[in-house]
């Protein structure tokens, strides 16, 4: 539900978690309005599907949403007449922050959605640069003359099947599937394609895409598929993708350290890596990367033992982060929002 993408359960304060049983009345006015909007949207969706739902909830805000939906008058009327049954499970997003910020998935779909810029007005789709399919010569990354491609291709069966494999297969297998679909499409259009075995590289996929470039009929017939393969090429070549593997290695190291020692020593290990803009190389972590790592650490560590040592370590990390953020010559939109 993109309109409600910003709806997050309130985080527990320093005094410990919020009480498990909060009613709608205990929530801030803005959050109350968002919950009511969500319940209204869900009821409209279930009406369209003629559903009689049975709700389950995990987490404090999820219980509030499930209870509101259960007592919502239009929903009660719908459940009396609905012909289809369904179970609906609500889960608080904050219960799995480690999953949201971790880099453990060897999954092409996840990388495409993380790396490519968002399609304006959308939360779950990205912009695919289509310049390669034109004769336009431009060095501008965000060429706005050519309309961007995207991942949603409901009218192209091959693209839909390929997207399924991006989500369900390991990255290596998914990239091989992209090559297979591309070769099949080119063969159908009698394009001079040379099938090669072995490892698939983004350059190889790019050379196959070039075959479609001057053939308008072939472009039209396979436009959806070409958009997904271009998204793959652009993701594999993106600098953020190589950083992904660094994140994964560091997360594993942190998990090991957390298992063997206390939180302060984990923070002290992180401290020398927080560098200001002028000290950083392209391989160093930026401010946003550290915020992601901190969310990950605090989500997986379990119960934290508070004390002077932890306070000192946290203060040092805070100081280093504030300095790094203040030294950014052009803060990213996320940093601007945070500050």
TrEMBL record:
PANTHER family: VESICLE PROTEIN SORTING-ASSOCIATED (PTHR11679). It comes from the Eukaryota. It comes from Hippolais icterina. InterPro entries: Sec1-like (IPR001619). This is SCFD2 protein. One of its GO terms (biological process) is vesicle-mediated transport.
């Amino acid at each position: 539900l993109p309109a409600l993408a910003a709806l997050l359960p309130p985080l527990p304060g320093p005094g410990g978690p919020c009480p498990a049983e909060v009613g709608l009345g205990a929530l801030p006015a803005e959050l109350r309005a968002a919950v009511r909007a969500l319940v209204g949207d869900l009821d409209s969706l279930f009406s369209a599907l003629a559903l009689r739902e049975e709700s389950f909830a995990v987490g404090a805000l999820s219980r509030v949403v499930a209870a509101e939906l259960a007592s919502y008058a239009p929903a009660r009327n719908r459940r009396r007449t609905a012909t289809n049954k369904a179970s609906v499970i609500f889960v608080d997003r904050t219960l799995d922050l480690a999953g949201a910020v971790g880099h453990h998935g060897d999954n092409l779909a996840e990388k495409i959605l993380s790396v490519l810029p968002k399609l304006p007005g959308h939360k779950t789709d990205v912009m695919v640069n289509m310049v390669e399919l034109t004769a336009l010569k431009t060095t501008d990354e965000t060429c706005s003359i050519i309309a961007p491609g995207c991942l949603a291709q409901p009218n192209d069966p091959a693209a839909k099947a390929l997207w399924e494999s991006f989500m369900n297969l390991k990255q290596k297998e998914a990239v091989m599937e992209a090559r297979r679909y591309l070769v099949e499409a080119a063969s159908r259009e009698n394009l001079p394609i040379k099938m090669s075995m072995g490892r698939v590289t983004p350059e190889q996929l790019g050379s196959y895409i070039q075959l479609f470039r001057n053939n308008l009929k072939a472009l039209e017939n396979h436009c959806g598929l070409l958009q997904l393969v271009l998204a793959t090429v652009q993701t594999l070549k993106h600098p953020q993708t190589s950083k992904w593997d660094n994140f994964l290695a560091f997360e594993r190291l942190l998990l090991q350290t957390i298992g063997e020692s206390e939180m302060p020593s984990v923070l002290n290990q992180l401290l020398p890596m927080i560098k200001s803009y002028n000290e950083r190389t392209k391989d160093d972590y930026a401010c946003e990367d550290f915020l992601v790592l901190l969310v990950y650490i605090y989500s997986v560590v379990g119960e934290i033992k508070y004390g002077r040592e932890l306070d000192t370590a946290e203060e040092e990390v805070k100081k280093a982060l504030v300095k790094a953020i203040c030294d950014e010559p052009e803060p990213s939109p996320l940093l601007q929002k945070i500050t």
